[in-house]
């Protein structure tokens, strides 16, 4: 199997975003300006977020510092009391600043109901303090008696001893628990890697000439950096302030401690404190007895990676919280040594590089960056070189794609655990955004990513498959997802994109695309777009070039922000970005108006049946009615109901004719009907173009008019006979009255699933609504949704008659699926039409709607993990209507073998039955939305899978795509 393109993940799309708004981070509601003012005040305040030193008695009484607790004095604690505004911020907004642990309830601190937010905030507080001279405790860090380290240490030990005994917690939250040990005081805590980066940043901020050294320490740290820092201090001795000299001295001490040999004596004592009946204790003592820190790193790294996995897989054999605490501390200590030894291992042949990547991938599993089941899935793909003198270039490519995936999954594990809290803090403290990057760089993912990038460069050279991206370093990390080309201003967005204005003619580089991405000229993302998400399907339709890149690539490209660039992605995935002045004549010719106009197509309206103005039962509709009575969602689901009656719910359809009838009503304050207002809008736009007004002016005019129309439709009076008929339809189809059956309202227009345009996800779907009022209001909202800015811009880009868009509505009862997703009946990555590409997430609206999905390539006999799920939140659909947000962990795969067999079966039946029963000449792949409830497969939608033929057949894209002989052999002992 050849996996030449990137591992799939997902991006947020509009469909679920409308329902996530009430559940988004508290950052949506907090008073940002107020908090920014408070942060500034605390930094300048001698006592920071505290007001006084007090005694805290066991009975809950708080006494003055000079008035100790009268009873149980030994159990009383003395430390700072929070200011009233600090407590108010915690109470109102659940934001915990300057938290003192010794007087904190341990269960409240674990904060399980809020996805461990309070614990994670404590870590971010410590991070901010380390990089910003104490942050809110800039002055209060010298407030004597505010925090008693002994009490904090004691609290930390008891905290872990209380929360570690539960097996499910240690298994499910392994990564988070290991990370928290770095920050919560408990005697074994240490985060020297972070301290080293924080101190180097502080020096560089004080003395900018240190910036090159800081970049080296952050990106490629080695033991030689100690000498580099020492020489730097000597060289600039006369230019440094006393404070900077002190910081450089502290940095050297931290580095010396970080690069010190493994303290075997201390670790042996630690292991000996583990209960003697614990089998892991013997394994660890044997490891320490045979370990020799002077051995070659290529011998030590495999040992260290293996012992990390031993600890993780056997930690549940230890029953006590104390034993588990000792094991986790040991795991962190071993990881610290592995980080140093892996940097010393610099292979000089292909075999050595493959082995280094394999063992670092195992270490990623041992440290919790990837799950153990994920490691077992990909392990065979990282062993193809074992025992072989040669491997094919195809095998090397598979190895590369698998190891790239592990790097990305590792980074995604950090993001999945911390992104919600980071986004919350970033709204009032932008420095918090660096926390995730800092954690990634503190892990094996740093050197693993470097090694994988090195392998990518070797393979690219052998394949003649190289990127040409503005002369930045580590270009082998960049790989194309969707072919296409674009020209426009480059916009690099390093932080959250949700409030960034998006322009159609610009090329965007995102950490993660915004949830409601409007059409753009080109896209690059660190968090890859899933090829089966709505946004990616639209990008694929329009030939919008799309590529994935690393976080370091994004930072390197930031200096080109605002430059006009040419951007192209070939069918094989190589990427070109060059500045405007460097474009060839051929590249400039790609953007003539003639070619652009040829891309547009017309929405067919010749056969539309606007005379049908009654509510339809979905059983009475089939594929032949698509574009006539209703859109393809309803027509195709009606067809599926006939073919798979047990796998498809009942349904009602509000056809085009009912919408059109309502549009004949007089539009308030306009004196004309809604329909006349709409057509006048487009007629006037054509007149403006004829008068040589710019397209931007025309578009702005249309958007203002359509926004007014949208608002008016949402307030439209529904015809009484239609409402009566709708109520009857509920009773007949769903066996219950309207208001007693939670349903989905799915927009279903005649512009969707055209031969050259999918229209996926452009218009509104309403989840699990119950009351009659919400349903009737929802109908109007769905009718109005084609006139939103996003929907209009996408279809305006591709359709030459966007005014002829008619919405129908599909109403189906909710199915509270445990997991849901998308199936494409071809291998998108492999290109094999007999394979299946599936992406599933937990809960409703999976994969197409933004979750970081579990993605697989399913063949007739096997299935390959392309990406695991990395979304900790998901929605369920209660019978009472609405949605509930739940959280999850990733220790188990989503799809089981029975699910996969059901998917194979239904895909084969779809391929056979649809042509037989519809007489369709369509021979392409199908895009199917489906879900599982109690292991039963439900089908929710089917549509043609549309790809942009211009992008795929472009002579230019063909010209930049190298011909690769994937059967050529590579000698594994070849020097590199």
From TrEMBL:
Q: Which InterPro entries does the record match to this protein?
A: ATP_grasp_subdomain_1, cNMP-bd_dom, PEP_synth, PPDK_AMP/ATP-bd
Q: Pfam families per the record? A: PPDK_N
- In this protein, which residues make up the domain named Cyclic nucleotide-binding? 424-502
Q: Which reaction does it catalyse?
A: pyruvate + ATP + H2O = phosphoenolpyruvate + AMP + phosphate + 2 H(+)
Any one GO MF term held by the record is: metal ion binding
* Requisite cofactors: Mg(2+)
Q: Which residues form the signal peptide?
A: 1-27
Is the keyword Transferase in the record?
Answer: yes
Please indicate if the UniProt record lists Methyltransferase as a keyword. Answer: no
Metabolic or biological pathway:
Carbohydrate biosynthesis; gluconeogenesis
EC number(s) stated in the UniProt entry for this protein: 2.7.9.2
Keywords attached to this Swiss-Prot or TrEMBL record, sorted alphabetically, are: ATP-binding, Kinase, Magnesium, Metal-binding, Nucleotide-binding, Signal, Transferase
Q: What does this protein do?
A: Catalyzes the phosphorylation of pyruvate to phosphoenolpyruvate.
Assigned protein family: Belongs to the PEP-utilizing enzyme family.
Q: What is this protein called?
A: Phosphoenolpyruvate synthase
Organism whose genome encodes this protein: Patiriisocius marinistellae
């Amino acid at each position: 199997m050849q996996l030449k393109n990137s591992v799939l993940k997902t991006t947020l799309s509009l469909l679920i975003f409308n329902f996530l708004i009430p559940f988004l981070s508290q950052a949506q509601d907090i008073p940002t300006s107020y908090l920014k003012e408070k942060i500034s005040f605390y930094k300048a305040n001698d006592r920071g977020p505290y007001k006084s030193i007090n005694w805290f008695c066991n009975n809950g009484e708080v006494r003055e510092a000079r008035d100790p607790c009268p009873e149980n004095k030994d159990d009383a604690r003395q430390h700072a009391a929070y200011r009233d505004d600090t407590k108010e911020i915690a109470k109102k907004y659940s934001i915990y600043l300057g938290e003192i642990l010794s007087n904190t309830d341990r269960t409240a601190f674990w904060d399980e109901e809020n996805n461990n937010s309070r614990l994670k905030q404590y870590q971010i507080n410590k991070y901010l303090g380390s990089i910003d001279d104490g942050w809110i405790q800039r002055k209060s860090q010298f407030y004597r008696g505010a925090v008693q380290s002994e009490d904090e240490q004691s609290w930390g030990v008891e905290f872990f001893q209380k929360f570690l005994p539960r097996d499910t917690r240690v298994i499910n939250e392994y990564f988070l628990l290991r990370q928290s040990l770095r920050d919560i005081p408990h005697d074994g805590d240490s985060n020297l890697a972070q301290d080293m980066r924080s101190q180097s940043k502080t020096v560089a901020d004080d003395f900018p000439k240190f910036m090159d050294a800081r970049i080296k320490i952050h990106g490629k740290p080695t033991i030689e950096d100690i000498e580099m820092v020492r020489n730097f201090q000597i060289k600039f001795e006369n230019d440094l302030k006393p404070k900077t000299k002190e910081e450089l001295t502290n940095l050297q001490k931290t580095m010396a401690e970080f690069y010190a040999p493994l303290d075997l004596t201390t670790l042996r004592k630690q292991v000996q404190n583990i209960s003697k009946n614990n089998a892991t204790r013997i394994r660890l003592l044997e490891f320490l007895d045979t370990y020799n820190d002077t051995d070659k790193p290529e011998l030590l790294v495999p040992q260290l990676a293996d012992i990390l996995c031993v600890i993780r897989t056997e930690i549940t054999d230890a029953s006590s919280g104390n034993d588990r605490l000792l094991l986790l501390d040991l795991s962190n200590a071993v990881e610290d040594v592995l980080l140093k030894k892996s940097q010393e291992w610099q292979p000089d042949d292909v075999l050595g590089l493959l082995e280094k990547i394999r063992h670092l991938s195992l270490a990623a599993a041992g440290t919790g960056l990837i799950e153990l089941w994920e490691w077992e899935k990909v392990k065979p793909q990282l062993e193809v070189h074992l025992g072989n003198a040669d491997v094919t270039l195809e095998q090397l490519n598979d190895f590369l794609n698998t190891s790239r995936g592990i790097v990305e999954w590792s980074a995604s594990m950090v993001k999945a655990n911390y992104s919600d809290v980071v986004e919350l803090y970033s709204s009032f403290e932008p420095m918090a955004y660096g926390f995730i990057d800092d954690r990634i760089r503190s892990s094996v993912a740093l050197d693993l990513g470097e090694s994988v990038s090195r392998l990518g460069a070797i393979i690219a050279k052998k394949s003649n498959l190289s990127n040409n991206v503005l002369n930045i370093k580590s270009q082998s990390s960049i790989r194309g997802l969707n072919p296409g080309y674009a020209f426009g201003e480059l916009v690099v967005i390093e932080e959250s994109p949700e409030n960034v204005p998006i322009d159609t003619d610009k090329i965007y580089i995102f950490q993660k695309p915004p949830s409601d991405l409007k059409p753009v000229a080109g896209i690059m993302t660190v968090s890859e777009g899933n090829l089966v998400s709505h946004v990616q399907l639209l990008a694929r339709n329009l030939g919008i070039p799309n590529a994935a890149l690393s976080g370091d690539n994004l930072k390197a490209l930031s200096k080109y922000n605002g430059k006009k660039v040419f951007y192209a992605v070939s069918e094989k995935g190589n990427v070109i970005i060059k500045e405007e002045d460097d474009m060839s004549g051929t590249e400039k010719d790609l953007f003539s108006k003639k070619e652009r106009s040829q891309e547009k197509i017309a929405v067919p309206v010749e056969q539309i049946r606007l005379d049908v103005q009654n509510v339809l039962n979905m059983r009475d509709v089939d594929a032949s009615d698509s574009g006539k009575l209703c859109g393809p969602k309803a027509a195709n689901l009606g067809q599926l109901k006939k073919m798979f009656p047990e796998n498809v719910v009942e349904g009602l359809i509000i056809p085009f004719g009912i919408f059109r009838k309502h549009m004949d009503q007089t539009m308030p304050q306009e004196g004309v009907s809604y329909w006349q207002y709409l057509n006048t809008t487009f007629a006037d736009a054509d007149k403006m173009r004829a008068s040589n007004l710019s397209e931007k002016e025309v578009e702005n005019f249309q958007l203002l008019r359509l926004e007014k129309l949208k608002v008016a439709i949402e307030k439209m009076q529904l015809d009484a006979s239609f409402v009566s008929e709708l109520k009857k339809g509920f009773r007949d189809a769903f066996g219950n009255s309207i208001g007693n059956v939670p349903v989905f309202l799915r927009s279903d227009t005649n512009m969707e699933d055209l031969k050259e345009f999918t229209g996926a996800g452009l218009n509104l779907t309403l989840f699990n609504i119950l009351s009659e009022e919400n349903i009737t209001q929802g109908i109007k909202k769905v009718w109005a949704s084609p006139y939103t800015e996003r929907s209009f811009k996408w279809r305006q880009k591709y359709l030459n008659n966007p005014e002829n868009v008619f919405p129908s509505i599909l109403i189906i009862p909710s199915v509270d699926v445990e997991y849901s997703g998308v199936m494409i009946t071809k291998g998108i990555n492999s290109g094999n039409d007999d394979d299946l590409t599936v992406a599933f997430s937990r809960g409703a609206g999976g994969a197409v709607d933004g979750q970081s999905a579990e993605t697989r390539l399913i063949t007739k006999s096997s299935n390959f993990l392309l990406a695991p799920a990395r979304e900790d939140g998901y929605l369920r659909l209660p019978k009472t209507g609405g949605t509930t947000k739940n959280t999850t962990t990733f220790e188990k795969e989503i799809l089981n073998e029975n699910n996969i067999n059901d998917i194979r079966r239904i895909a084969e039946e779809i391929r056979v039955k649809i042509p037989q029963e519809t007489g369709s000449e369509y021979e392409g792949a199908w895009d199917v939305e489906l879900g599982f409830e109690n292991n039963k497969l439900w089908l929710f939608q089917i549509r043609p899978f549309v790809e942009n033929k211009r992008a795929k057949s472009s002579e230019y894209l063909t010209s930049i795509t190298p011909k690769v002989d994937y059967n050529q052999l590579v000698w594994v002992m070849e020097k590199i």
